[in-house]
Amino acid sequence: LPRAVLCAFAGVGKSSLVHLLCQNQVLGNPSWTVGCSVDIRIHDYKEGTPEEKTYYIELWDVGGSVDSATSVKSTRAVFYNLLNGIILVHDLTNKKSSQNLYRWSLEALNRDVAPTGVLVTNGDYDREQFADNQIPLLVIGTKLDQIPEAKRNEVLTRTAFLAEDFNAEEINLDCTNPRYLAAGSSNAVKLSRFFDKVGQVNYF
């Protein structure tokens, strides 16, 4: 099955997001992810076109921190093998979680030079490294509802630059409200485009 890995700072709401993406329901009692948890999303490839096909996508919620010991990172590297897409998740109310996406992306893409064509040196971020990256990336910001109205424009402008750095589309939402991913919404369209790309890597 095609596989998309969710990378994020602890506590941003990955488990709630995965549940929303796969079950279209709010997760009642989210808990910390230990190691890795996997859920399945049913996706309609190129929905509404003659090429429409339905397939399953694995969503891997990888736990831990970018500051983990080398041994933990080595164990986590197993989850990055054969991935077909990366979802970078950050908490819109926590600037540090956004900044850590750079390190998460480097960790995931540096697992093997051959599949992605991306070589990361010295652990430094360089947006040019993503120019030739063939692995689809999507940036998702959570806890949109918790940002004060007066600060919302400032925060969303900053995150727009973040997504641009990764050459990726972005979605900002509240994981406790399914309407942010309602059918026909701009977020739903972005999500569908991303999963189309994830499936293309494997099937088409």
Automatic annotation (TrEMBL):
Q: Its function? A: Required for KRAS signaling regulation and modulation of cell proliferation. Regulator of KRAS prenylation, and probably prenylation of other small GTPases. Required for lymphocyte development and function. Not required for myeloid cell development.
| Protein name according to UniProt | Rab-like protein 3
Keyword set includes Nucleotide-binding = yes
**Keywords attached to this entry:** GTP-binding, Nucleotide-binding
Please give one Gene Ontology molecular function term for this protein.
GTP binding
Short name of one Pfam family: Roc
Which family does the record claim for this protein?
Belongs to the small GTPase superfamily. Rab family.
Point out the signal peptide segment: none
- Coiled coil feature spans: none
Entry annotated with the keyword Transport: no
